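WARN retry 2 of 3 for item q-0093 after timeout on previous attempt; input resubmitted unchanged.
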Amino acid sequence: MAKTEKTEKKRSATTAKAGGRSKRLTAEVTKAVAAALDKKAMDVVVLDLRGTPAFTDFFVLCSGQNPRQVHAIADAVEEALRSAKVRPNHVEGYDRGEWVLMDFFTFIVHIFTPTTRDFYSLERLWGDAERIEVSDEEVGGRR
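OK item q-0093 returned
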């Protein structure tokens, strides 16, 4: 077996062991997801837009039960990334708390109330993107 074949097999085994998902996410996206999950965000999904003609690499989508929880999730994401010296370029919708958009250039975090998320249905609009379901177990080693 050629050396490149061995390396490729080893790489696929590592990705398979890790569930395949967290290995494909950047460290910043993983931190944002972990922060959202720490604040009990619901339906956390990452859309991998790298294979589409998009203006960013990832969308992180999640929901909070109400505007207060949406604010808490947004604050936690910003704080977690600030410790990594990553700040959002732009934040929209924080005052209303129905849909907070946080633009970090290479990824965008969308935090919705359930009604607003259903109405805008970004998962459907970006249907060409690879959908990565995220759970506490996949981001498990974050603490």
